[in-house]
Write a structure and sequence with these properties.
- The chain has 481 residues and is α/β, with parallel strands linked by helices.
- The chain has 2 domains: 3-16 and 75-387, Trimethylamine methyltransferase-like (TIM Barrel, Alpha-Beta Barrel), CATH 3.20.20.480; 393-422, no CATH class.
- The protein contains 20 helices and 17 strands.
- The strands form 4 sheets. It has an 8-stranded parallel sheet with strand order 6-16-15-14-13-11-10-9.
- Helix 3 (43-52) crosses helix 10, helix 7 crosses helix 8 (197-203) and helix 7 (180-194) runs parallel beside helix 9 (220-231).
- The longest helix has 22 residues, at 252-273.
- The chain is globular, with a radius of gyration of 23 Å.
């Protein structure tokens, strides 16, 4: 067990739903698949499903899933595996006992705090955030955080992956894969980094998202790409995103039932195509503003939906990921931090294993360097809470209480010196008295976060790839020009 892995270990989860509730939602998902079905726009996926016993009509993209077929295919998905880092030091066991955190991806603009404006994201933003993600203690997984507008559209995914691999040793999650060609290129890149395709298949150094199209549809090209990932044992974060009241029922249980059905359908496709391929029950469901119908990431309902998805994953016994930092705030700061803190706390409570995604508020569209630092601080506090604390003779310290007695001080005691190292030390909150804080410039956490960003980028030097690997990655990227 590495120190890095141990950092993310949490106590056993609690839930909001009873076993009877989860069973009812699961049976609802099975019924939806059997009686309504899913529109599967991938011919390859339909072929695999038909071979496994699903009901596929020639000339139609709609597939229905008998309950027995779903049960048998879902049983093929591994219950545990490891998300590998570039080195074993950063490996992340997906075994239900940890809560990991990722950066967010697919941002299309960057917040400029000095002018309170937005600019287009560029490849340099991926490099910088990869360096920062490599440094930050609570970033477990790095996900290229933006679309690079300064490289050709066709190749922006592989450009971003190359830069990510060069600047962090942590596990890399690709959110933006849209076609099979991109998937194959990224697999080649991962194999180059680890020394071969078999090593990549064994270590799961990279993983990828497949987003469903709620309600009950799967894009053909994206599904084909995910099948390539599955063929190579790269874990797939199945990301269903029904918006309650718009692309799913407005009731939370109904929305989770749609989410559950879509997730089961994807598991069935991948296990029919590549039995035993690692699946992650991932979900980023949201609610709507009842006055306007607009996106409400970070609302109490969105938080409950994400928690419900985690509980359904645990009901199946499949590793999970969820959107725990998906604030709808238009700018970094108070709203984004409050919503992210509540959501992250809730997801940790129910056993969220991969909690997505630091640093990109406004519906995961706006990269904010300062919010990236604030979210890291939130994660550290959440992990401290959900580790719990040890209760034994030494921690109760009755002998020490007798020694210090009434009215004494514990500050000079060796017991205090020995155990105070376990206390959480904030990196952005200033705990000094007001007068001292004022003398230091009365800086708020956002100012301190921006200063920390500059410090990290000036001083942190990620461990480089082995000699010659960057050139090989560059050759793969050039194929897309």
């Amino acid at each position: 067990m590495t120190e890095f892995e141990q950092r993310f270990r949490i106590r056993p989860p609690v839930g909001f739903m009873s076993n009877a509730d989860k069973k009812m939602i699961h049976e609802a998902g099975l019924e939806i698949l059997e009686t309504v079905g899913v529109r599967v726009h991938s011919a390859g996926a339909r072929k695999a499903l038909k071979g496994a016993g699903a009901l596929v009509t020639d000339g139609s993209v709609e597939v229905k899933f008998p309950k027995g077929v779903v049960t048998s295919l879902v049983a093929k998905a591994p219950k545990k595996f490891v998300l590998g880092g570039r080195t074993e030091e950063f490996d992340l066991p997906m075994d239900g006992t940890h809560s990991y955190y990722t950066t967010d991806g697919c941002g299309i603009s960057v917040w400029e705090p000095k002018t309170c404006t937005r600019r287009k994201s560029v490849l340099e933003d991926i490099r910088k955030t990869a360096v920062i993600g490599d440094y930050l203690p609570y970033v477990s997984v790095y996900e290229p955080m933006v679309v690079a507008h300064d490289v050709p559209e066709k190749s922006h995914v592989v450009h971003g992956m190359k830069v990510a691999m060069e600047n962090t040793q942590k596990h890399i999650l690709s959110e933006s894969t849209t076609n099979s060609e991109e998937a194959r290129a990224q697999i080649k890149m991962g194999a180059e980094v680890l020394g071969g395709i078999e090593e990549l298949r064994k270590r799961h150094y990279i993983s990828a998202m497949l987003c469903t199209m709620s309600p009950l549809m799967l894009d053909g090209i994206a599904t084909d790409a995910a099948m390539v990932w599955a063929e190579n044992d790269c874990p797939i974060h199945i990301t269903s995103m029904p918006q309650a009241g718009i692309s799913g029922p407005v009731t939370l249980a109904g929305d989770i039932s749609i989410l559950h059905a879509e997730t089961l359908a994807v598991i069935c496709i991948m296990e029919a195509h590549a039995p035993g391929s690692p699946m992650i029950y991932g979900a980023v469901p949201t609610s709507m503003d009842p006055k306007t119908g607009s996106y409400m990431g970070g609302s109490p309902e969105s938080t409950l939906l994400c928690a419900g998805a985690v509980e359904m994953a645990r009901y199946l016994g499949i590793p999970n990921s969820t959107g725990g930092f998906g604030s709808g705030a238009k700018t970094p700061g108070i709203q984004a931090s409050l919503e992210n803190a509540v959501s992250a706390m809730t997801c940790a409570a129910v056993g969220g294993e991969v909690v997505n995604g630091f640093g990109v508020p406004d519906g995961s569209t706006l990269l904010s360097y300062e919010q990236l630092l604030l979210d890291n601080e939130i994660a550290g506090m959440v992990l401290k809470v959900f580790k719990g604390y040890k209760v034994d003779k030494d921690t109760i310290a009755t002998d020490l209480v007798r020694k210090v007695g009434i009215g004494g001080s514990y500050l000079s005691q060796m017991h205090t010196l020995k155990n105070m190292k376990d206390l959480f030390i904030p990196t952005l909150w200033d705990s000094t008295p007001f007068d001292m804080w004022a003398k230091k410039g009365a800086k708020d956490p956002i100012e301190l976060a921006l200063e920390k960003v500059d410090e990290i980028l000036k001083t942190h030097k990620p461990v480089p790839l082995e000699k010659g690997i960057s050139e090989k990655l560059g050759a793969i990227v050039k194929q897309f020009k």
